[in-house]
Design brief:
alpha/beta, 2 domains, Dihydrodipicolinate Reductase, domain 2, 12 helices, six-stranded parallel sheet, six-stranded mixed sheet, 21% strand, binds nicotinamide-adenine-dinucleotide
């Protein structure tokens, strides 16, 4: 299958390696930064193309891993050609455009996947199934943690929208995906403690959000841009029958003050280390769908991106108003 990869930065390089290892994929890479695509193509035995329209004309599927603000125009070009499209999250930073692109994909019958790799993580997907099967009973509380080991370059932070639209977007998505319910509202708070430049960007590096779940239950989320021991993504779900956790193991980047016992294994370095298997499973499932296979129920959708963005925007508003805010728009 001829696959076009647009955006050869940090996550694009990881996808290129997965795609090259998938077998039966002829990969063509494109990036607006000079030399970036050629260097990656040489590394994964693919080709480079400096004209994105030519790349799309020659592709049977496209993987968009460029900076967030470029997703809108690139996905529109791919959908015009009815190309099965995988786009890293978020689809766009604009609700109206997210809906327009999503409906265009729906009307054209074109697969449009958004990169929410936690849906494909062994732990999170088992938790999803246990909740759906009723093993936990009534879900009382969800507690989630998403903390980068170290913050990304400032240029990347500036292009990301905000920590709510970038990092905590995954947690907003998880609350909906795991509970199968919409969120009724968000109360959020944020501070700048590690990256002073974020003040000028009106962004934060330490945030917390409390969410109401429609039909009952609450979620408490924290996220941050610095965690000295390593990348830390965890969840605990407490219900009337059980309490289950994902991410608490001998690689979790925290220490007990009274720590004893064997040495721990190295902590997770970053998202690529922690979710390597999930990213691989996700892109393999996308390729299978692009080849005409059955849609995978775990696929992240444009509605997931829309709903998570509406919650991220509500969180931003809540930090300013200091009040509980409903999602900016209901999920279409
Ligand atoms: N799912 C996740 O956990 C996860 C993790 C990291 C990043 N992401 C997403 O992946 C995307 C890329 O993030 P990154 O960390 O790799 O950023 P990055 O800055 O390292 O790379 C982005 C690349 O896109 C290129 N680019 C920008 N505009 C382009 C255009 N119009 N056409 C072609 N190339 C273009 C840049 O030159 C750069 O090489 C972002 O949307 C981000 O939200 C998702």
């Amino acid at each position: 299958m001829r696959v076009g990869l647009v955006g050869c930065g940090q996550i694009g390089r990881m996808y290129a390696e997965h795609l090259a290892a998938s077998g039966d994929v002829a990969l063509t890479c494109h990036d607006t930064r000079a030399g970036q695509a050629a260097a990656l193509a040489a590394q994964v035995d693919g080709e480079a193309c400096d004209d994105v329209e030519r790349l799309l004309d020659g592709a049977e599927a496209v993987v968009v891993t460029s900076s967030t603000e470029s997703h809108d125009a690139l996905v529109a070009l791919a959908l015009e050609r009815k190309l099965p499209t995988f786009c890293e999250k978020p689809l766009t930073l604009d609700l109206h455009r997210t809906r327009e692109l999503g409906l265009a994909a729906d009307h054209g019958g074109t697969p449009l996947w958004i990169g929410f790799q936690r849906h494909f993580d062994a732990g999170f997907s088992a938790l999803h199934d246990r909740i759906a099967d009723g093993d936990i009973g009534t879900v009382y509380t969800v507690r989630m943690f998403s903390h980068d080991a170290a913050w990304p370059p400032l240029e990347r932070l500036a292009a990301s929208g905000s920590i709510f639209r970038d990092l905590m977007l995954h947690d907003f998505d998880m609350v909906r995906w795991l509970t199968g319910r919409e969120v009724s509202g968000v109360a959020a708070i944020g501070d700048v403690l590690a990256v002073p430049e974020l003040v000028e960007l009106h962004d934060y590096d330490a945030v917390a959000a409390t969410l109401g779940v429609e039909g009952g239950g609450v979620a408490v989320l924290t996220a941050g841009r610095h965690s000295p021991l390593g990348y830390d993504v965890r969840i605990e779900v407490l219900g009337s029958r059980d309490c289950l956790t994902v991410g608490l193991d001998d690689r979790t980047p925290m220490r007990q003050v009274t720590e004893h016992g064997p040495d721990r294994r190295p902590r997770h370095r970053d998202y690529r280390d922690r979710f390597a298997a999930a990213y691989r499973a996700q892109i393999d499932a996308f390729l299978a769908a692009a080849r005409g296979g059955e849609p995978d129920p775990r696929a992240g959708t444009w509605r997931d991106s829309y709903a998570a963005l509406a919650l991220a925007m509500a969180a931003e508003r809540s930090v300013r108003t200091r009040s509980f805010e409903p999602p900016v728009e209901a999920t279409p």
